[in-house]
Amino acid sequence: MSVTWNEPYLETCCRSALHRLCLAGATGRPTGLRDDPCLERMERMGFVTRLPQGRFVATDAGKARHAQEVLTSGKKLTLHP
Fold first, then answer.
1. Can you tell which superkingdom this protein's organism belongs to (predicted)?
2. What is the rounded average pLDDT for all residues in the chain?
3. What is the Cα Rg of the chain in Å?
4. 1: burial class by Cβ within 10 Å (0-12, 13-18, 19+)?
């Protein structure tokens, strides 16, 4: 059986940054924090966007990835061939 992973890999630091971002909700996170490099990387991946005020917020894709990868922590993930 061959399993192919076709989603971009998120480093542990990026998963943590995504979790903090989702906890912040619609307010988002300001720029200038230590997780800026991760938020900028996830912005390029489409998981994060920047508001006109410069704050980062999660996109629908980011919220879905958070639910899939962060909130399922400790649960068995099902891989689809």
1. Bacteria
2. 86
3. 13
4. exposed
